[in-house]
């Protein structure tokens, strides 16, 4: 056949039929194999994928085929952003997309969706993972404690001495401030909110108070111990020690 | 997640950091089994290597010990506390492979350490068949054929005017946790201690073919076949040089020669694109800088940037007058040849640098911790 306007018919699990261009459909290695080894005119059944999901997947394939072929004027950055928006869906849909991409063997979509889930679970606590993904905790209390103890340090949020550098103390840095008081600066680093006192007085100070704001705004602030301060022009370096259990 | 097939769960998990994965062992028993599974550990490692994630630089300062710099963030250092005790102030990293560090102290005690999993091991004592060895050459690497981590130690002792000559080479295998003697080497060491580098699943050192040789040659020890072979360097690369350094970079053998040309320092970086093929040597970089006293400069390539467009160089300035050394990093852009400082806060003034990748690779649990 070879013509670029060849169409392939796909039937989903809920009996919806889609007619798509061959170039788009064969992004799926599974469909490609079936098409090349079967009768080209017949309808290909994609049993495990619903109409809604297939529709989304075909959008993805079409976008990528068109951008690669130059049919659509889209820069790599714009495509990257399109992909990022594509995966902004509810969790069930995301999982359905993963299952479909796995079954249809669409490598780039599987890569995108798996990376999205990986990004969602980075830095989370085991309890959060279980709740989010509905995983049964089959450990006994003792067994779970034992496993936790094997890698106790992995549960520290920030171990050891950390250096946080605040550069260019401009007005927009102040605008991140939680209290909105002009004299305080608030910097968000690695899920921690650290507040410092009075920038204008810092140059004359030998020590400053550093407060950690817990995620729950009603919990009182915790004052951290600060090991060493270097106050120079243009930036401040703080060396501080804190650990907190996840 | 419960309804995702196992290979998809593994695909997702292999993108996470070692710290996250060690924590997620307590999510459920199936997750723990997956994370501890040797197949998954290899999958995670190969993903890190392929996408250049979970990489860091390890800086060793002789007194202050080890610091790591994240290769993605590249901003600050984090102190690495080794588990070998306060007394061991003379630990040097002899090799870094797949997340395992091999270290040696001044008494030739050898240790293995995975800083990501915080597991460590002391190697069994390595008996030498003769007294007063004058040189020990080490190397550490992974053999994919036998799926085995091996450490090589070659010891030589010789008197003046070839009164006597003893040579012994041994290989340690991680899985069996023991040393075994290998075929004697057919070359000579002249330096007291050298650490080999890993390329193409072989360990390499610069050695002398005969005791009278003036020039060094590159020898490779294949970790699979355990055979030595010599590799040829580009013609004339060792002539009239101030400094010579050879290592692996981006998987290929990389040779750096520094020499003076009229008023300039020239740093030439050669890459052997095809392993063992002399004609495949090509000059990647020829970097000229004006030469100025009173200091000597060391410029050594460390690694490629993630996108491959730049090379990270280690720059060491040594001031003759005050004997002080100040080390730093710069990025050399391969296209524009522009050099840019890489600012990292908290680095020690002088250090050695090793590349490191976080991994779950285990040590031998039966060995001495």
Automatic annotation (TrEMBL), chain B:
Family matches, as PROSITE patterns: FBOX
Q: Which InterPro entries match?
A: F-box-assoc_dom_typ3, F-box-assoc_interact_dom, F-box-like_dom_sf, F-box_dom, SCF_F-box_component
The chain positions of domain F-box read 1-43
Per its UniProt record, what NCBIfam families does this chain match?
F_box_assoc_1
Q: What is this protein called?
A: F-box domain-containing protein
The beginning of the lineage is: Eukaryota, Viridiplantae, Streptophyta, Embryophyta, Tracheophyta
């Amino acid at each position: 056949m070879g013509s670029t306007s060849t169409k392939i018919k796909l039937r989903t699990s809920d009996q919806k039929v889609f007619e798509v261009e061959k170039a788009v459909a064969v992004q799926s290695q599974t469909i490609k194999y079936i098409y090349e080894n079967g009768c080209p005119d017949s309808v290909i059944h994609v049993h495990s994928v619903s109409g809604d999901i297939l529709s989304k997947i075909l959008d993805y394939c079409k976008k990528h085929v068109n951008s690669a072929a130059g049919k659509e004027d889209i820069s790599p950055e714009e495509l990257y952003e399109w992909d990022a928006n594509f995966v902004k869906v509810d969790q069930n849909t995301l999982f359905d997309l993963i299952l479909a991409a796995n079954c249809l063997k669409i490598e780039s979509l599987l890569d995108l969706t798996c990376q999205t889930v990986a990004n969602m679970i980075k830095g989370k606590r085991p309890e959060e993972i279980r709740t989010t993904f509905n995983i049964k905790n089959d450990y006994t209390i003792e067994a779970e404690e034992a496993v936790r103890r094997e890698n106790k340090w992995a549960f520290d949020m920030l171990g050891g001495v950390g250096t946080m550098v605040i550069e260019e103390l401009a007005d927009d840095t102040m605008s991140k401030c939680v209290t909105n008081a002009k004299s305080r600066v608030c910097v968000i680093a690695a899920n921690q909110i650290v507040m410092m006192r009075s920038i204008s007085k810092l140059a004359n100070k030998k020590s400053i108070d550093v407060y950690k704001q817990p995620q729950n705004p009603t919990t009182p602030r915790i004052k951290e111990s600060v090991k060493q301060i270097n106050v120079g022009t243009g930036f401040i370096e703080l060396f501080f020690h804190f650990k907190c259990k996840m | 997640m419960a309804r995702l097939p196992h290979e998809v769960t593994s695909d997702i998990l292999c993108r996470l950091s070692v710290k996250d994965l060690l924590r997620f062992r307590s999510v459920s028993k199936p997750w723990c089994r997956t994370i501890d599974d040797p197949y998954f550990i290899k999958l995670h490692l190969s993903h890190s290597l392929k996408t250049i994630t979970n990489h860091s630089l390890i800086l060793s300062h002789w007194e202050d010990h080890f610091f790591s710099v994240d290769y993605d963030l590249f901003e600050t250092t984090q102190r690495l506390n080794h588990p070998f005790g306060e007394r061991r102030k003379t630990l040097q990293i002899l090799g870094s492979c797949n997340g395992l560090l091999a270290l040696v102290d001044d008494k030739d005690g050898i240790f293995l350490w995975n800083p990501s999993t915080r597991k460590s091991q002391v190697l069994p004592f390595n008996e030498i068949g003769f007294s007063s060895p004058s040189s020990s050459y080490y190397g550490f690497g992974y053999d994919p054929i036998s799926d085995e981590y091996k450490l090589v130690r070659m010891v030589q002792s010789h008197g003046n005017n070839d009164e006597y000559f003893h040579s012994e080479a041994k290989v340690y295998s991680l899985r069996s946790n023991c040393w075994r003697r290998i075929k004697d080497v057919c070359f000579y060491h002249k330096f007291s201690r050298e650490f080999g580098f890993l390329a193409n699943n072989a360990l390499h050192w610069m050695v002398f073919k005969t005791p009278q040789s003036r020039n060094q040659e590159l020898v490779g020890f294949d970790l699979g076949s355990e055979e030595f072979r010599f590799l040829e360097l580009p013609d004339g690369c060792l002539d009239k040089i101030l400094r010579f350094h050879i290592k692996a970079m981006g998987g290929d053998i990389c040779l750096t020669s520094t020499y003076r040309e009229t008023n300039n320092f020239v740093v030439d970086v050669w890459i052997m694109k095809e392993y063992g093929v002399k004609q495949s040597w090509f000059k990647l970089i020829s970097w000229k800088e004006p030469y100025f006293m009173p200091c000597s400069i060391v410029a050594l390539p460390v690694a490629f940037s993630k996108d491959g467009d730049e090379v990270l160089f280690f720059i060491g300035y040594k001031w003759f007058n005050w004997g002080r050394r100040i080390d730093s990093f710069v990025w050399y852009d391969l296209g524009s040849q522009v050099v840019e400082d890489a600012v990292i806060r908290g680095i020690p003034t002088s250090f050695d640098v090793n590349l490191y990748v976080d991994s779950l690779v285990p040590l031998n649990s039966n060995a001495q911790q």
